[in-house]
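Dear colleagues,

As part of the handover before I leave the project, I'm documenting each prediction I ran so the next person doesn't have to rerun anything. This entry is a single chain, and its sequence is reproduced below.
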Amino acid sequence: MFITCHIKMSNPGSGSDHYNIPLLDKNGSNYDNWKFRVFALLKIKGLMEIVRGIEKCPPEKATDPKDQVAVTITFDKWHAQNDQTFVEIVITLKKELSRKIRQFELLSRKLLPRKGSA
């Protein structure tokens, strides 16, 4: 089973490309192929530094109040990229695996709520 991702390239006039990413099997039998294809997708979208942990979550608050706007923009941008990375990976998982991740996500929100969330 394959899913098709439609990606709008950042270069003007390049149109969209289609990528067939195999859904990761529950038993992981296609893991190597899945990982290769997902990593290629994440590379083209500029998200690999988040996956590899190179680009870490920046602070939410500035040490100097005059820098708060820039710090907030950087913080929000990182979280948007982190969320996009999460979605790009989760949509390539079969239902059983994505259900387990959803359960974990719900539990982690209860145990470790983000600042500003209820």
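Residues 110 and 118 are 9 Å apart (CA to CA). The longest strand covers residues 2-8.

All the best with the project,
I.
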